[in-house]
Design goal:
It is built from 13 helices and ten strands. The chain is an alpha+beta fold.
């Protein structure tokens, strides 16, 4: 499969390095190694080290296209440009490697100027992939009119995903179905006709979340070779969050789309190891994109797909990779499993997150992020002895990490039956869910001292005796 350079080259890994504040977050992703020098970013949901990206460490950078990275790239450009001007006067302008942003079909794409010297932003409506079909609907008709047009076909019953066939395809070839791999040629615009997505040969598997829902739904309604206009409401595109910097929140999109090819998805066990690593990393990076958008269910699915691909086994069950390839695959599986555990924690799938963390420790026993997650989950479940062993192991590896010290202190208090102890309740796993903190219910504290009911009763009795004695005295 082909993916934008940013997704194939960037990696999100668990980071074991110690953060400045030494705070670990069990829902943090393993961050990526950049194709150029990128500063580490600290996700709110990651382990403390010394989001999320990890070089086999607890801390790290967030998934490939984080906001902080985009901000850093801008600042880096600003800082380097004056030097470039000064050196340019001398004819010796040497620009350090930096990332420039252009629009892509998936998200902001970063390119290395050392590879492509002239990086042209693809945001001009003059760039048309289908010049022979520059019809009025594509060039100027308001989207509101297109949603109401009678000569458009409804792909969904809610009329929020529609298409208009410009050229019919091969009627003898069956339509594509869920799980098949397709190749399309497409470009997309917002309502002012600014091009925001463009790809001459986009390859994706239907149903694996590689692209927005609008494209998946549309290709399943198309014939091979068909050219069509596709109008998608925001709920089938980028929704509430939009896509920085070019697609606003709640923005509908209009596409010109051609279905070039349909084929079965290749069996990953038949692919060369290098291809498995490439595809697995693409799926993992896509999961990171979903995680950043707080689409944790989609992120977990992407990580699971990546894990299916990241293997050195063949169909007969034997290992086919060289020693170096096996080690590389193992490292990528660790990253993927750590990110999957982070997504499962966001979905409150605590038992699944514990199982995934143990899978990490099977491959890499000294992975501090997995040790911390496993120890915290075991402590929350009341498995104190095992939790103590796991957290002590993590502390031995990262003795300055404050989060591990804090979790051990909490564990000791729980073992001693402290009054402030919190109890852990498992909630059913969700397919999709919001970012909700682990469900902790404070234990009820036992009341101490004399009951107020007893005191009130005693006062009533005393008052009654006093009144009776006064009445008797008055009679005498």
């Amino acid at each position: 499969m082909q993916l934008s350079p940013s997704l194939s080259e960037m990696e999100t890994e668990p980071c074991c390095k110690e953060q400045k504040d030494g705070v670990l977050d069990p829902t943090e992703l393993e961050e990526a190694e950049g194709i150029s020098e990128l500063a580490e970013t600290h996700s709110v949901n990651e382990l403390p080290c010394g989001p999320a990206k990890e070089d086999v460490e607890l801390c790290g950078e967030d998934p490939a296209e984080t906001k902080s990275q985009a901000v850093e790239n801008k600042s880096h450009d600003k800082k380097s440009s004056p030097n470039c001007r000064q050196e340019g006067e001398k004819g010796e302008c040497k620009i350090e490697k930096k990332l420039k942003k252009t629009n892509s079909w998936k998200m902001v794409r970063f390119q290395d100027p050392s590879i492509e010297e002239d990086v042209v932003e693809r945001d001009s409506s003059a760039e048309i992939l289908f010049p022979e079909y520059a019809v009025e609907e594509w060039t100027s008709t308001p989207f509101e009119e297109l949603f109401m047009a009678e000569d458009w076909e409804n792909i969904t019953e809610d009329r929020l995903l529609r298409k208009k066939v410009l050229e019919s395809g091969d009627i003898h070839v069956p339509h594509s179905t869920w799980g098949q791999e397709v190749t399309v040629k497409m470009q997309g615009v917002v309502e002012d006709r600014t091009v925001v997505e463009k790809d001459c040969k986009l390859v994706f598997v239907i149903g694996e979340g590689d692209v927005i829902q609008a494209l998946e739904e549309c290709v399943m309604s198309m014939q091979k070779g068909e050219i069509a206009l596709l109008l998608a409401d925001s709920q089938y595109a980028y929704g509430l969050l939009g896509r920085e910097p070019d697609i606003p929140a709640w923005a509908p999109l209009l596409y010109q789309l051609q279905l070039l090819d349909i084929r079965d998805k290749p069996d990953p066990l038949t692919l060369p190891i290098a291809d498995r690593i490439r595809i697995g990393n693409q799926k993992r990076e896509r999961g990171n994109v979903h995680f950043q958008r707080e689409e944790y269910g989609l992120a977990a699915r992407a990580y699971c797909v990546a894990l299916e691909v990241l293997t050195t086994r063949s169909k007969d069950g034997n290992d086919v990779g060289m020693k170096e390839e096996e080690e590389e695959v193992r490292e990528y599986r660790v990253k993927c499993l750590n990110n999957l555990a982070a997504a499962q924690l966001k979905l409150e799938q605590f038992d699944e997150a514990l199982h995934t963390s143990r899978d990490v420790l099977t491959l890499q026993p000294d992975n501090v992020k997995a040790l911390f997650r496993a120890g915290k989950l075991l402590s929350d479940k009341g498995v104190y002895n095992e939790a103590m062993e796991v957290l002590k192991h993590a502390l031995k590896l990262e003795p300055t990490t404050k989060a591990i010290h804090a979790e051990l202190s909490k564990l000791v208090k729980r073992q001693s039956g402290g009054k402030d102890m919190q109890q852990w309740r498992v909630k059913p796993a969700k397919v999709l869910g919001d970012d909700i903190a682990p469900f902790l219910i404070p234990s009820k504290k036992k009341s101490s001292g004399i009951s107020w009911k007893f005191i009130l009763g005693a006062l009533v009795v005393a008052l009654g005796s006093l009144v009776t004695s006064m009445v008797l005295t008055a009679r005498h």
